[in-house]
Amino acid sequence: MNKTVKEILEWSLCVVIAVILALVIRFFVGAPTIVKQPSMYPTLKQDERLVLNRWFKTTNGELKRGDIVTFESPSKTFVASADADLSNPVAEYTKEPKNIFEKFGYYVLEIGKTSFIKRVIGLPGEHVKIANNKVYINGEVLSEPYLEKEVLTTSLNGAYIDLVVPEGTVFLMGDNRPKSTDSRCFGCVPISKIESKVWIRFWPLTLFGEVK
C-alpha cells in the first residue's frame, strides 16, 4: 500500500469516527436547534438558537411541571370534539418506521421528522381543565408567571380541555396560547415521544443562559 492511499484511508477513518461520535452525542447527550415557530413567545422567540438536553431521556430522568421540552409531532395535530375519545385522550402517532434503516433515518438523522417545543403543564394522573381563560390542575388555578399578563388560555376549539392525564403521558401547551397547536388540540403526549428538554439559549448572545 503506497503512502497516499494509506493517508486517504486514515483520513476517511477519522471522518467516519467523527461522524459516528457526533451522531451519538446528538442522539444521547444534546443537540443544537433553532426556534422556528412563535408558539413559545415570549419565552422563546423565532430564530433563537438553543441547546437541547437529551441526557435526561438517556438516563430516564423525570419530567416536572414547567419543563420546556421538544417532542415528536403527532400524526394528527387537531382533533374535533366529535372525533375525540375522552376516555383515552392521547395524541395519535401512526408513523412508525418499519426497519432498522428507516428507524435510523427517522430517529437519528431525523429525516422526515417534525418536532414541537412546548411546556409541561399536566402530569400523569392530574385533572387538567381549561375554563374561565385559565388552567386548573386538580381544581386549583395554575400559577403561570411565564405568560404575558394579557394572555388568555382558551380551548382553541380543541377537544381536550377537561381530562385526567393518562399514565405515561403529559399535557403540553405553548406559552403563546392563542398561537400554539398543543395538547388542547391533539391530546396528551406519550413520554416516550419526548425527545429532550430545552437547556441553554446561546443566541442571541445577550440572552445567553439557561431557559426556564
Report what the structure shows.
The protein is α+β, with helices and mostly antiparallel strands and 212 residues long. The chain has one domain (32-210): Umud Fragment, subunit A, CATH 2.10.109. It has helices at residues 3-28, 55-58, 100-108, 183-186, and strands at 30-34, 49-53, 68-72, 115-122, 127-131, 134-137, 140-141, 162-164, 169-173, 189-190, 194-203, 209-210. The strands form two sheets. Strands 1, 2, 3, 4, 9, 10, 11 and 12 form an eight-stranded antiparallel β-sheet that branches. It has a four-stranded antiparallel β-sheet with strand order 7-6-5-8, with no helix packed on it. The N and C termini lie far apart (57 Å). The model has no long low-confidence stretch (mean pLDDT 91).
The proportion of residues forming helix, as a percent range, comes to 10-25%
Q: How does CATH name the architecture?
A: Ribbon
Overall body shape = elongated
Q: Residue-averaged pLDDT, rounded?
A: 91
What is the CATH superfamily classification? Umud Fragment, subunit A
Question: What secondary-structure arrangement, pairings included, does this model have?
Answer:
Elements: H1 3-28, E1 30-34, E2 49-53, H2 55-58, E3 68-72, H3 100-108, E4 115-122, E5 127-131, E6 134-137, E7 140-141, E8 162-164, E9 169-173, H4 183-186, E10 189-190, E11 194-203, E12 209-210
Task: Name some characteristics of this structure.
26% strand, 212 residues, 8-stranded antiparallel β-sheet, elongated, 20% helix, single chain, 12 strands, 4-stranded antiparallel β-sheet, Umud Fragment, subunit A, alpha+beta
